[in-house]
């Protein structure tokens, strides 16, 4: 291992990095060393590399776990400003370590980094070596709460993981650290004793005092304007907190207070560092860093001076084909297809505006993690000529009484570069002006495209965007190259320092990573000839067609419909899908299946192999990106899975030693949300809400007891080691642990079902207890978070309130036993149980929010918009609203219902808003008034209390004819105020009877 550290140090030193030393106090990551945390701030260039022992008390395992250490070794690299080829430089460092990039599957997989306690974040990837995360690669965006300019690249190697993979050992203790000395021999005692300290022996009161003392000293150093020692004491503060956390001594309130304190100190340190460097005159700005030397393979990716991008615009004759390729560093899978769609829309819009895109034109899009492509065929050679009307002064002001040009006309002509005699008359509206009509010659297609390309590229946006060394650009990941061809010609354009060319980039590890494209129509085939499939559908088909035989080879199969979401993710993780079969020890099948498949799918993106009966087999399929040594990649991925299953087994066995009730205490240490307490507080509220709802339903004693007992245990699994490690198993592990501890099967199932649905399309709870707990869970989320002002805004919904509202309405719609539960009453119950006041305004906003989600869901399911909006008065009872929408859709074609609708519209239109139903039938003077009143009384008496829409329609139809007669014979707005008020009061009573629909929506 020490040889690997020396190689990395030599490699990065040879590329202009200063070799720094580890921090002389405990840090959780190399990021916290001032060589990173402080040096990324401000404008000064900085390249540094260093080894950092990283101490994480929570990862203490006494040295027993093969993959978890309380002190692990990181190798940290900072490149500031980001050089534009950091990925290629990084791959060169793997070669320096002796990793054969042609044999192994090396991939950049989305992983965004953030440290809320330090106000730092960035976007980037985990780097995988045959499925093993070996490096965190991040474009630093903020540190200490300050936005970074320039942006730095942070590369953090996990050394133990890398060396275990290279040496083929399965336990960190077996790593050959130096000749004749293993890792365990060198550091095993320290690992055990420090684990003992962090988990068992650290004195809580002493560490509390240390935290306070370090925070006080950090403040004193800030006051003395000494940012470096202040930063050192913030780090000591953080470590003392981590020790207390590992001892289970941090409660919710204390955690929030400590985080806020450390974040505030870190922000002040960052600001003071920037001030001090400014006072010193930014000395590194005048000291050029060593020019990095690129090894073979890295220099190759530095694109040559753009050939063919001269200012001269090429012209074509006949139809044209245009190809645009936007080359990026690996996009998150969920951004690939939407980005391609955006590019197509902007291109079509721009080309239609200029007349280049005609009926015969076609745009085809292609997308991979590294490229977004649009190929447009059937383009016109140039935009059509068009007339331009240039308006001058009014004709009456253009000439004097003798017909000579006035100064106004002379100035206009001069501005247009013509003689006044050339100015004619133009009519705009009904007014005549002096003016010109010019013929504008259409630009060649290349000119239009040259203007359109920057608009396309500059307009790219994603869910989360970052900056890099490209002024004016902000996107999900850096854009690195542009190919723009019109037939055989390069379309010259420049965007943020990049120029278009005909050179595309293929796999980074090939001998020739840059490939010239001769013609726009040949871009796609050029990529395919170099092992890249740019078409999403073809990659999907290739994965299915090549994976299925591998599964059959071990007498298994892949459940492609069931794994649809995973397949879609894999499709956009690779450019050249290469399925590889792997296996794991059958002994792991003794673990609950959900644990095994969650690790496979969520963490590793492996496709599970099952028998024909659906039983999980000890095999999986991973999809590598491009040709590789299949045996090596299979072995590497199997080792990764084995390590993860060892972790899972460790957590599972540890959790089984604790009763579910005893885990509840751990919820006190889990923060829910600011001002809303801990997860223990939230679980208590869910229990109370569920019990209150249950008391309003017709449940037998057994069902009430299941609700009560499941409520007592609600959310206990969030404190288990397994769910802390694999949060998506919440509910699943609650059921598993509850069963194994002897809880009633119905209680265990209710604990599982309360987490359903997890996402759109997921299964809904079927049992009454699980349904009530799930509803209570969502009601608590909505009432509490709206109360503290955490409603979703724009695309931001950190607490998943949109998902919660959809889940709430879906459960209420599908479980008829919950018909008595309404959204508004449920939110009121939840509001009464909150730790904060829930104002009437917040409650109303939450109700409207849920109603909007229901409205959109019904529209998405195919109900006409006007129908859905008409039934929204019943949004508080989603099941009724859904049924009413279906009924209304059928009734709209019924002539009798249409007549009733028209009649009721007459009533609703004339009654002013706010009119009370106050009237005296004795004051009616017209026969039509009495007839309508008699019909109204009969209908009101016959109308069922909870009428369906068809029942209401049948009962209310007798009102249609009397209403029409009423408006024919009666002057509602009589001159006599008393008569007018009496008639409006009567019509208001009819209005209040027919609130079953929002009638104007179907006028």
What does this structure look like?
This protein has 1003 residues and is α+β, with helices and mostly antiparallel strands. Strands 1, 2, 3, 4, 5, 6, 7 and 8 form an eight-stranded mixed sheet that branches. Helix 19 (679-695) packs antiparallel against helix 20 (701-713), helix 22 (732-740) runs antiparallel to helix 23 and helix 25 crosses helix 27. The model is unreliable at 290-310 (pLDDT under 50).
User: How many strand elements?
Assistant: 27
Helix/strand-derived category reads alpha+beta
**Which word captures the global form?**
globular
For the terminal residues, how far apart are their CA atoms?
78 Å
CA radius of gyration:
35 Å
Share of residues in helices? 40-55%
Mean pLDDT rating: 93
Number of helices: 34
Low-pLDDT stretches = 290-310
Strand content: 15-25%
Please give the largest β-sheet.
8 strands, mixed
List the helices and strands and how they pair.
Layout: H1 2-13, E1 18-19, H2 34-37, E2 46-55, E3 71-80, H3 86-96, E4 106-110, E5 113-115, E6 120-129, E7 132-143, E8 146-158, H4 159-167, E9 176-178, E10 181-182, H5 183-201, H6 204-223, H7 227-246, H8 252-279, E11 320-328, H9 333-354, E12 362-368, E13 371-379, E14 386-394, H10 395-398, H11 407-416, E15 424-428, E16 431-440, H12 445-458, E17 479-486, E18 489-490, E19 494-495, E20 498-499, E21 503-505, E22 514-516, H13 523-529, H14 536-552, H15 564-571, E23 577-583, H16 593-603, E24 607-610, E25 616-625, H17 630-656, H18 660-663, E26 671-673, E27 677-678, H19 679-695, H20 701-713, H21 721-725, H22 732-740, H23 745-753, H24 768-787, H25 801-814, H26 823-832, H27 840-860, H28 865-870, H29 878-891, H30 895-910, H31 927-942, H32 949-956, H33 960-969, H34 977-993
Helix pairs in contact: 6-7, 6-8, 7-8, 9-12, 16-17, 19-20, 19-24, 20-23, 20-24, 22-23, 23-24, 24-25, 24-26, 24-27, 25-27, 25-29, 26-27, 30-33, 30-34, 31-33, 31-34
């Amino acid at each position: 291992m020490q040889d690997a550290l020396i190689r990395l140090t030599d490699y990065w030193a040879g590329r202009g990095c200063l070799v720094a030393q580890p921090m002389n106090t405990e840090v959780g990551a190399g990021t916290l060393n001032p060589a990173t945390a402080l040096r990324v701030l401000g404008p000064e260039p900085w390249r540094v590399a260093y080894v950092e022992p990283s101490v994480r008390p929570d990862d203490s395992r006494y040295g027993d776990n093969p993959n978890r250490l309380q002190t692990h070794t990181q190798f940290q690299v900072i490149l500031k400003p980001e050089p534009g080829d950091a990925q290629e430089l990084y791959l060169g460092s793997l070669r320096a370590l002796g990793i054969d990039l042609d044999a192994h599957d090396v991939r950049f997989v989305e992983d965004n980094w953030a440290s809320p306690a330090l106000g730092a974040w960035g976007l980037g990837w985990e780097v995988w070596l045959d499925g093993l995360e070996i490096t965190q690669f991040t474009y630093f965006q903020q540190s200490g709460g300050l936005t970074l300019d320039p942006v730095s690249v942070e590369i953090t190697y996990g050394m133990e993981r890398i060396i275990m993979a290279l040496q083929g050992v399965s336990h960190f203790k077996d790593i050959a650290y130096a000749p004749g000395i293993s890792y365990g021999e060198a550091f095993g005692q320290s690992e055990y004793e420090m684990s003992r300290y962090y988990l068992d022996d650290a004195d809580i009161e002493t560490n509390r005092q240390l935290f306070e003392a370090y925070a006080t000293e950090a403040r004193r150093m800030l006051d003395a304007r000494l940012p470096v020692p202040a930063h050192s004491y913030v780090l000591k503060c953080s470590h003392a907190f981590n020790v207390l956390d590992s001892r289970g001594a941090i409660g919710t309130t204390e955690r929030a207070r400590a985080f806020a304190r450390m974040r505030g100190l870190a922000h002040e340190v960052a600001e003071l560092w920037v001030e001090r460097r400014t006072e010193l005159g930014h000395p590194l700005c005048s000291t050029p860093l060593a020019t990095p030397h690129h090894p073979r393979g890295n220099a190759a990716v530095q694109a040559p001076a753009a050939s063919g991008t001269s200012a001269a615009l090429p012209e074509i004759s006949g139809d044209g084909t245009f190809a645009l390729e936007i080359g990026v560093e690996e996009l998150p899978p969920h951004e690939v297809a939407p980005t391609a769609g955006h590019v197509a829309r902007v291109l079509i819009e721009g080309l239609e505006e200029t007349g280049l895109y005609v009926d015969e034109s076609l745009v085809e899009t292609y997308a991979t993690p590294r490229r977004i492509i649009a190929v447009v065929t059937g383009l016109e050679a140039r935009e059509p000529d068009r007339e331009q009307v240039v308006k001058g002064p009014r004709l009456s002001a253009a000439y004097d009484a003798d017909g000579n040009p006035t100064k106004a006309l002379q100035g206009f002509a001069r501005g247009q570069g013509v003689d006044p005699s050339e100015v004619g008359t133009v009519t705009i509206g009904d007014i005549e002006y002096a003016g010109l009509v010019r013929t504008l010659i259409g630009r060649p297609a290349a000119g239009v495209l040259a203007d359109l390309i920057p608009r396309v590229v500059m307009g790219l946006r994603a869910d989360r965007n970052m900056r890099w060394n490209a002024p004016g650009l902000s996107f999900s990941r850096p854009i690195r190259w542009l190919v723009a061809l019109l037939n055989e010609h390069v379309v010259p354009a420049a965007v943020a320092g990049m120029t278009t060319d005909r050179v595309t980039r293929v796999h980074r590890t090939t001998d020739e990573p840059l490939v010239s494209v001769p013609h726009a129509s040949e871009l796609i085939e050029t990529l395919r000839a170099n092992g890249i499939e740019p078409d999403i559908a073809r990659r999907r088909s290739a994965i299915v067609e090549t994976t299925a035989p591998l599964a059959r080879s071990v007498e298994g199969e892949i459940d492609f419909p069931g794994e649809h979401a995973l397949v879609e993710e894999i499709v956009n993780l690779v450019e050249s899908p290469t399925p590889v079969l792997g296996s794991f020890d059958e002994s792991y099948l003794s673990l609950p299946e959900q644990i095994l498949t969650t690790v496979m799918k969520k963490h590793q993106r492996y496709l599970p192999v099952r028998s024909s009966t659906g039983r999980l087999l000890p095999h999986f399929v991973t999809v590598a990106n491009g040709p590789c040594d299949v045996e090596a990649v299979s072995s590497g991925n199997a080792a990764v899975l084995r390590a993860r299953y060892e972790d899972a087994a460790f957590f599972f066995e540890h959790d089984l030693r604790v009763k579910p009730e005893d885990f509840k205490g751990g919820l006190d240490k889990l923060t829910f949300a600011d001002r809303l307490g801990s997860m223990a507080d939230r679980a208590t509220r869910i229990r109370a809400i569920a019990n209150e709802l249950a008391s309003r339903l017709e449940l037998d004693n057994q069902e009430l007891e299941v609700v009560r007992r499941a409520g007592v245990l609600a959310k206990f699994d969030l404190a288990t080691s397994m769910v802390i490690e694999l949060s998506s198993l919440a509910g699943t592990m609650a059921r598993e642990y509850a069963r194994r501890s002897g809880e009633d099967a119905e209680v265990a199932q209710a604990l599982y079902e309360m987490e359903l649905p997890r996402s759109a399309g997921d299964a809904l709870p079927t049992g009454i207890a699980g349904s009530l707990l799930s509803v209570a869970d969502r009601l608590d989320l909505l009432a509490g978070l709206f109360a503290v002002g955490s409603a979703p805004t724009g695309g931001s919904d950190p607490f998943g309130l949109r998902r919660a509202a959809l889940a709430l309405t879906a459960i209420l719609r599908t479980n008829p036993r919950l018909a008595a539960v309404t959204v508004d009453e449920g939110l009121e119950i939840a509001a009464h149980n909150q730790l904060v006041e829930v104002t009437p305004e917040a409650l109303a906003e939450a109700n409207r929010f849920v109603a909007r989600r229901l409205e959109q869901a019904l529209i998405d399911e195919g109900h006409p918009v006007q129908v859905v909006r008409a039934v929204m008065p019943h949004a508080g009872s989603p099941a009724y609203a859904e049924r009413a929408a279906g009924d209304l859709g059928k009734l709209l074609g019924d002539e009798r219902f249409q007549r009733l609708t028209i009649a009721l519209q007459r009533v609703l239109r004339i009654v002013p808003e706010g009119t009370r139903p106050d009237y005296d039938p004795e004051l009616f003077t017209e026969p039509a008034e009495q007839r309508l009143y008699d019909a109204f009384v009969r209908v009101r008496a016959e109308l069922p209390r909870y009428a369906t829409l068809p029942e209401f329609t049948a009962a209310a139809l007798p009102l249609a004819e009397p209403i029409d007669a009423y408006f024919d014979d009666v002057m509602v707005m009589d001159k006599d105020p008393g008569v007018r008020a009496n008639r409006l009061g009567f019509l208001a009573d009819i209005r209040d009877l027919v609130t079953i629909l929002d009638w104007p929506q179907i006028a």
